[in-house]
Design goal:
Elements: H1 12-20, H2 46-71, H3 85-93, E1 100-102, H4 108-114, H5 118-125, H6 149-163, E2 170-175, H7 182-193, E3 198-204, E4 207-208, E5 211-212, H8 225-229, E6 233-237, H9 241-256, E7 262-267, H10 287-294, H11 298-308, H12 314-336, H13 343-348, H14 356-369
Parallel strand pairs: 1-2, 2-3, 3-7, 6-7
Antiparallel strand pairs: 4-5
The structure holds thiamine diphosphate and magnesium ion (MG).
Length: about 375
Amino acid sequence: MASKTKKAQFDAKKTLEMIEEQFEMFQILNEEGKVVNEAAMPELSDEQLQELMRRMVYTRILDQRSISLNRQGRLGFYAPTAGQEASQIASHYALEKEDWILPGYRDVPQIVWHGLPLYQAFLFSRGHFQGNQMPEGVNALAPQIIIGAQYIQTAGVALGLKKRGKKAVAITYTGDGGSSQGDFYEGINFAGAYQAPAIFVVQNNQFAISTPRDKQTAGKTIAQKAVAAGIPGILVDGMDPLAVYAAVKDARERAVNGEGPSLIETLCYRYGPHTMAGDDPTRYRSSEQDTEWEKKDPLVRFRTFLEAKGLWNEEKENEVIEQAKEDIKEGIKKADAAPKQKVTDLMANMYEEMPYNLKEQFEIYKEKESK
Ligand SMILES: Cc1ncc(C[n+]2csc(CCOP(=O)(O)OP(=O)(O)O)c2C)c(N)n1
Ligand SMILES: [Mg+2]
C-alpha cells in the first residue's frame, strides 16, 4: 500500500497561497479622490496633471460621439472605452514618443494620443486601409483583432529595440479574456527569457464579451501569472489614473535600464457593451455591479482631486468637451473625404511583394474598377 505523505512535510497549496497573497492592489487615489499612498505619488507638475485630466475627458467624449456616430451608421466596428480611461490614457501618459504601442481593438485612444489623426481612427472603424497606416513617426501597429496575438509581436518588437540599443519600450494591451490565450503566455515568457523591454498590460474589465472574469482562470489575480515567466507582476487599481501612471512609469524605467519586461493588470470596467455589434450587457451583468463600478469612475475621482487643488473647474472641462466635439466633427469630415476603398487597395497594401496568384486577381479587379 502506498504511504501517505505527511501534510506537515509537504503542503502543495502553500506555495500558491504564499504567492497569491503578495498581489495586493496598488492604489494612490481612492474612490473619493483622496491620496491614500503619498509615498508612491508620481512626480507630475500641475500642468501635467491637468493635461492627464484633459485627455481623459476628451477620450470620454470621443467614446460618446463614436457610439452615436456608429448608431447613425457613420462608423463601423467600434469597441466602447468609457470606464477604462485611467487604464488606457494614464498608461499611455507614462510613455515617450519613441515607444511602440501594440494595441488591441479597444485601444484606439492610446494610438490617437500617440499621434494617429482622428480621421484615421474613424477610417480604421470603417475597415478602410488608410486607418491601419500609421503616419511616419507614430510608433504603433494597427489594433489587433486576434485576441492575444499582440503579446507575441510585442516580445519581438521589444527584442528588436534591445538589439538596436534603443532607449524605448514596446507596450501592449489585452483583456482578461486575452490572458487565457496561449499567445499571452508565450509572449510574456519569451520577453522574460530575453529580458526584452516590454510592458504587457492586461485591462481586466471583468468580462470577455459575456464571460465573467472568474471563468478565465483559477488564479486569484492575472498579475500573478508573471511569476511563472520570472518577471514582475503588478496589480493596479485601473480606475486610478495616478496608480496606473506610476506603475507604467516604473515598468518603463526598469525596461529601458535593461531590467526586462513587466506584466501589469489594471482592474477596471467597461460601462458600455462589448462592441456596437449588438451584445446586451443586461443579459450577463447586474445593474448593481454597474453601479458599484461607476462609483469608482476615474474621471470623477481625478476631478475631485484636481478641484481640491484648484487645478480644475467646470469652465476647463467645458473647453475640453467643445474642443473634442469640434475635432471629431472635422475628423469625420476628413474621413468622409477619403477615396472609396477598392478591392485592389486591399491587395496592394497587404504585401510588400504580391504573390503570383494574387497578381492575377489584382489585374482582373483593376480591369473591373476601370469601368
Ligand atoms: C483568437 C480569437 N478568439 C476569439 C475572438 C472573438 N473575440 C473577440 S473579443 C473577445 C473577448 C475578449 O475579451 P477580453 O480579452 O477580456 O477583452 P475586452 O473585449 O474585454 O477588452 C473574443 C472572444 C477573437 N477575436 N480572437
Ligand atoms: Mg475583458
